C-alpha cells in the first residue's frame, strides 16, 4: 500500500516546471474529482503530516476513498515528471522512442518502426548511450528475424551483428572500469583515507587491475576516459598526493567541459569533479584558485532537489573553509546565517555523509566563537544516533571534536568515558593517526603548568612533533579536516584559537 508520506514528499519536491506541467497536462478533474483537492492541500501546507492530510481531505470529501485518491495522484504526478523528462532529457527520450518502436511493430507499421529504431541507434551512438544502443540494435535484429530478413543480405546482417558485439565489448570495458572505481570509493568511504604504507599497499590490487585494464583496452570513449581519471584522482587523494590528484582532476574537468552533450542529468560526475578539485585545492591551501570552481558550482541548475541541495552545501563548505582555516570564526558565522534558508533548513535532502560533514563544521564555527553549547548541539544529533553514522570515517573526527568541547566545558568524567569508547573503536577499525593519539592524551591531562614560562617551554618541547605531523602525508589526511594541533597549542600557550590558525594560514 502506497503511503501518503511518499506522496507528500514527491509533491513537495516538485520543481516549478514540474508544477506547471502538472497543471497543464494533468487529466481533467471530472475523471477523478478529488485528486486535485488532495494536490492543493499538500501544495499549500509545507509541514503537513500524513495524518493531517487525511483529516483535511476527508473533511472536504467525506464520501471519497482517501487511499485510492492518494494512489491515483501519485501516479499522475509521476507520469507528469516522466513526460517532462522525456521532452528535455536525451536519456529518457531514447528509451521512450524504443517503447514507441515496439508499439509500431505490434501495429504492423514496420517501416515506421525500423525508421524510429534507426534514429535511436544513430542518436545513442552519438551520445555514447551504449545501453540504449544495445537494446535498439538487438530489437532491430529480432524484428528483422520475425519478418524473415526482408531486403537484408548476409553481409549486412553480419555487419549489424558485428556492431552489436562491438557495443557489448565497450559496455563490458565500462562495467569493469566502473567496478574498480566503485570498489575504490567503497574502501575509502568505509575505511577512510590511507593512514600508513601498509594500508596504501592494500589498495595495490585495485591500482594494478586498473592499470592493466587501461593498458589492455583499445577502446577510446568518453565514459572510459572519465572513469579512468576519476579512479586516478580519487586514489591519489586517498594516499595524500594532492598535486598529482589535482592534475588528474584538471584532466577530468577538461574532458567534461569538452563533452557537455554527454553529461548525465543531473551532472553528478561534473559535481564530483568540482568537489574533487576544490577539496584538493583546499588541501594545498590554494584558496585563490578555489574561487573559479566555486563560481562553476553556482552556475549549476537542475530540477533535482537533492542535487541542488548538494550543490548549495558544497558552495557553503568551500566558501567557509578558507575562513575557518584562517581562524575567522565571525565571518564563518555570518556566512552560515546567509545560508540559513537555502541550506540549513533543507538538510533532510542531504546524504548522511554530507549531513555529518555539515554538522562538524557548524560545530567548529560555534566552537571557535566559544559557544560550546551550540557546538555540542550541532554534534549531538550525529553522536546520539551514531549507529547511522558510525561507518563513516568522519565519525571519528566528529568524536574528537566533541572531546574538545567536553574539555572546554570541563566535563572530565565524560571525557574519560568517551576516550575509552574511542580507543575501543580504534582497535576495531585499525591504525590510528598520531594526531588522534595526541588529542586523546591531551584532553585527559589536567595538570598543565600554571606559569606562562613553563607553558611556553612545554609547547616548545612538543611543537616539533606537531610540525612533523603536519608535514606527514598520512597525518595530513585528518589535519586537513581540522588542525587539532592548533587547538592544543592555543590551550597550552593560552592564546585564542583564531590567533593560532591565523598565524598558520
Structure commentary:
Helix content is 76%, strand content 0%. The model has no long low-confidence stretch (mean pLDDT 89). The protein contains 28 helices and no strands. The protein is mainly α and 505 residues long. The longest helix is centred in the middle third of the chain and has 38 residues, at 154-191.
Find the count of extended strands (DSSP E, 2+ residues).
Answer: 0
Specify the number of helices. Answer: 28
Order of helices and strands: HHHHHHHHHHHHHHHHHHHHHHHHHHHH
Integer-rounded radius of gyration: 28 Å
pLDDT averaged residue by residue: 89
**Share of residues in strands:** under 5%
How would a textbook summarize the main sheet? none
Termini separation: 57 Å
- How does the overall form come out from the CA principal axes? globular
Structural class designation: mainly alpha
Regions with pLDDT < 50 over 5+ consecutive residues? none
The percentage helix is over 70%
How would you summarize the topology of this molecule?
Elements (H helix, E strand, L loop, with lengths): L3 H9 L3 H10 L9 H10 L5 H11 L5 H23 L1 H17 L3 H18 L2 H17 L7 H38 L5 H5 L2 H13 L5 H17 L3 H16 L10 H16 L3 H13 L5 H21 L3 H10 L1 H5 L7 H17 L3 H12 L2 H4 L4 H15 L3 H18 L4 H10 L8 H19 L5 H4 L4 H10 L3 H8 L1
Helix pairs in contact: 1-5, 2-5, 3-4, 3-5, 5-6, 6-7, 6-8, 7-8, 8-9, 9-11, 9-12, 12-13, 13-14, 14-15, 14-16, 15-16, 16-17, 16-19, 17-19, 19-20, 19-22, 20-22, 22-23, 22-24, 25-27, 27-28
Summarize the structure.
This protein is an all-alpha fold and 505 residues long.
Amino acid at each position: 500500500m502506497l503511503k501518503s508520506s511518499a506522496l507528500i514528499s514527491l509533491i513537495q519536491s516538485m520543481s516549478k516546471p514540474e508544477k506547471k506541467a502538472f497543471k497543464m497536462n494533468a487529466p481533467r478533474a471530472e475523471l477523478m474529482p478529488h485528486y486535485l483537492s488532495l494536490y492543493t492541500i499538500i501544495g499549500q501546507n509545507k509541514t503537513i503530516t500524513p495524518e493531517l492530510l487525511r483529516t483535511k481531505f476527508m473533511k472536504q470529501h467525506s464520501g471519497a476513498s482517501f487511499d485510492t485518491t492518494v494512489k491515483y495522484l501519485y501516479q499522475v504526478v509521476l507520469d507528469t515528471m516522466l513526460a517532462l523528462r522525456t521532452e528535455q532529457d536525451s536519456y529518457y527520450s531514447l528509451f521512450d522512442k524504443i517503447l514507441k518502436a515496439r508499439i509500431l511493430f505490434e501495429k504492423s507499421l514496420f517501416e515506421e518502426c525500423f525508421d524510429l529504431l534507426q534514429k535511436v541507434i544513430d542518436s545513442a551512438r552519438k551520445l555514447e548511450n551504449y545501453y540504449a544502443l544495445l537494446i535498439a540494435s538487438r530489437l532491430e535484429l529480432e524484428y528483422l528475424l520475425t519478418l524473415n530478413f526482408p531486403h537484408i543480405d548476409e553481409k549486412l546482417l553480419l555487419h549489424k551483428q558485428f556492431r552489436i558485439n562491438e557495443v557489448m565489448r565497450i559496455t563490458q570495458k565500462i562495467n569493469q572500469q566502473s567496478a574498480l572505481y566503485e570498489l575504490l570509493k567503497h574502501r575509502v568511504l568505509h575505511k577512510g583515507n590511507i593512514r600508513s604504507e601498509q594500508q596504501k599497499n592494500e589498495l595495490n590490487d585495485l591500482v594494478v587491475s586498473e592499470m592493466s585494464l587501461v593498458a589492455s583496452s583499445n577502446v577510446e570513449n568518453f565514459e572510459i576516459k572519465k572513469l579512468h581519471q576519476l579512479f586516478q584522482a580519487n586514489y591519489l587523494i586517498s594516499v595524500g598526493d594532492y598535486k598529482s590528484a589535482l592534475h588528474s582532476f584538471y584532466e577530468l574537468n577538461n574532458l567534461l567541459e569538452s563533452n557537455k552533450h554527454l553529461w548525465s542529468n543531473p551532472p553528478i560526475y561534473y559535481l564530483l569533479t568540482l568537489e574533487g578539485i576544490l577539496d584538493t585545492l583546499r588541501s594545498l591551501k590554494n584558496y585563490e584558485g578555489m574561487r573559479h570552481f566555486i563560481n562553476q558550482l553556482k552556475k549549476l541548475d537542475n530540477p533535482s532537489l537533492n542535487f541542488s541541495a548538494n550543490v548549495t552545501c558544497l558552495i557553503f563548505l568551500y566558501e567557509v573553509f578558507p575562513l575557518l582555516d584562517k581562524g575567522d570564526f565571525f565571518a564563518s558565522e555570518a556566512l552560515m546565517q546567509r545560508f540559513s534558508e537555502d541550506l540549513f533548513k533543507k538538510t533532510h535532502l542531504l546524504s548522511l555523509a554530507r549531513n555529518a560533514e555539515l554538522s562538524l563544521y557548524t560545530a567548529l564555527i560555534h566552537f571557535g566563537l566559544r559557544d560550546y553549547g551550540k557546538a555540542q548541539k550541532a554534534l549531538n544529533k550525529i553522536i546520539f544516533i551514531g549507529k547511522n553514522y558510525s561507518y563513516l570515517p568522519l565519525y571519528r573526527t566528529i568524536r574528537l571534536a566533541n572531546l574538545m568541547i567536553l574539555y572546554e566545558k570541563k566535563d572530565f568524567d565524560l571525557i574519560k568515558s568517551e576516550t575509552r569508547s574511542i580507543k575501543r573503536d580504534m582497535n576495531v577499525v585499525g591504525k590510528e593517526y598520531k594526531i588522534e593519539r595526541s588529542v586523546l592524551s591531551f584532553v585527559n591531562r589536567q595538570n598543565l603548568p600554571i606559569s606562562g614560562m613553563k607553558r611556553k617551554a612545554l609547547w616548545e618541547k612538543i611543537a616539533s612533533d606537531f610540525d612533523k605531523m603536519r608535514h606527514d602525508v598520512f597525518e595530513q589526511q585528518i589535519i586537513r579536516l581540522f588542525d587539532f594541533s592548533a587547538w592544543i597549542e592555543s590551550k597550552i600557550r593560552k592564546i585564542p584559537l583564531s590567533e593560532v590558525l591565523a598565524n598558520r594560514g
